[in-house]
Amino acid sequence: MRKWMRLRRAGTGIGTLYASLVSVAALLVVLGLLLIFSSLIHVRQVLVTAAENGARVAALTGDTQTVQEAVADTLQEANLPQTYHDQTLWTVSSTSVVNGPAQPEAKVTIQYHAPILFPNLFRALGHPNSLPVTIPLSVSASAVNETYFTGPPN
Q1: Which residues lie across from 112 on neighbouring strands?
Q2: Is 1 contained in some domain?
């Protein structure tokens, strides 16, 4: 009887093998999601910097074209992709310069479609749906309109 119990408890290790495979797969999914969301946080921080630079330029010049150039320069310096499959990823959706006495400010809003690092992460694991190829992000920044106080630049 004891010999039979000892053999029964020993097993073949199949359960341990399955448990280790499942835990490695779960760890890879968590690691992939961590990489995806950390890259999105980085992209958002770069967009905040670009919007702040655009708002500063809008506060000084009030020119939409110059604002777009300042935003594009900031995105290029950060090495963010500006096109994906021949599709532009970012736009300056609004630039407003308010000259009122209550709130003289320049406000810039940037729309960016951030590409995802692993769009087929769930499909590789057998899930029928995958992540979207890009995620839309929107960032706004404002700066004090200096031309209200000093006049337009010469």
Answers
A1: 90, 137
A2: no
Amino acid identity, position 145 = N
Domain count, the chain: 1
Question: What is the spatial distance between Cα 117 and Cα 28, in angstroms, rounded to a whole number?
Answer: 14
Asked whether residue 4 is assigned to any structural domain, the reply reads no
Q: What pTM was computed for the model?
A: 0.73
Amino acid at 77: E
Which residues, 6+ apart, have CB-to-CB distance to 68 below 8 Å? 54, 92
pLDDT in tens, 36-95: 889 899 999 999 999 999 999 888 887 888 988 999 899 899 988 888 777 788 888 777
For residue 59, the SS3 value is helix
Length, in residues, of the chain: 154
In a domain, 2, yes or no: no
Residue 110 counted as domain residue: yes
Domain housing 39: 13-150
Residue range 80-118, pLDDT digits in tens: 888 877 778 888 877 777 766 656 788 899 999 888 777
